[in-house]
Structures are given as C-alpha cells and as structure tokens.
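pasting for ref
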Amino acid sequence: MQVGVDTTMPDKVIKRWLVSNGFKVKDEFETINTIANLSRKLNISQIELCWAIWIQESNEKGKINIV
C-alpha cells in the first residue's frame, strides 16, 4: 500500500464492517478478496474503499471536509 499497490489492509475495522453488512469472511484472504470485488463493483480503488469504511466507522465523517 505504501509503495502504490492497490490492496486492502484486512484489519478488525474492515472485517467488522463487512460482517455487519452481511458479508461472510473467515480470514484475511477472504477479507481482501471481498474488498477487491466491492471496489471493482463501485469503480473505486481498494484504498479509497478502506478509507471510506474507516472514516465511517470512526464517526469522524462530520469532522472531515471531503470535497
């Protein structure tokens, strides 16, 4: 991710969001694949999707000025 690879960090926040939205993820690899599939369907990068999830889950959405 830090060198420009579009991938997912399969941490507990991302896993929790997936599970709370009806996705079944058993491990980190399934988490990465699920986010990759979602990002393709939404036509955004995996990194953008992960950031959006983190912003939403941290309740910082109203504090961040996103244009």
